[in-house]
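Something for you to look into today, if you have time. What I am after is a single protein written out in full by you. I want to see for myself how the chain folds. Could you add the entry underneath, on a fresh line?
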Amino acid sequence: MPDAKVLLITGASSGIGAATARAAAGEGWNLVLAARSTDKLDALVREIGEDRAVAVACDVTDYDDQQRMADAAIKRFGCIGAVFANAGTGGKPGGFSGAPPESWRMLVDVNILGVAYTLRAVLEHVKAAHEDILKDIRESKKLPEEAQERLNDVINEFKKGFSATDGSSVAVNEAETEAMDEADVEKESVKVRKPAPKK
């Protein structure tokens, strides 16, 4: 199986997306960088290294475009290990009371549907990249010690956050998975909550 350390980032051409790409590259990740235009992405790929990163043009409001993005990632690196659905847009001047109501559609299309489309487009690929852990969960209904250690390593790595030159950072709160009951396994859902203190 290909190395699962492949991170796909939408909205990667500037700001937090580009800063995250640089930080992730420094941590050894291969990168799939997506944005509406590849002009800035191409420069970022050259900066990181063409052997480590690929630029993909993608309009996150178009689900077919997102599927093509996921296909391009698989073609280039063989898997998708993680995704940062970062693409977003701000509102028009005037806020809720002053901006034209028709401008709200773009906010919903990019910031809500766009994120949902990204997660749906990559879901099966991410699951496939971590099939060994999922298989252990399905068969034993709990995380084996080795899988739990691997999960903790991932959590700790992301807890560090990605420090950026512009002061931006991305961090993931600490989480622990608990054993799933049979119904949850059937639904392919994972409960995430803080574990009870050890006695």
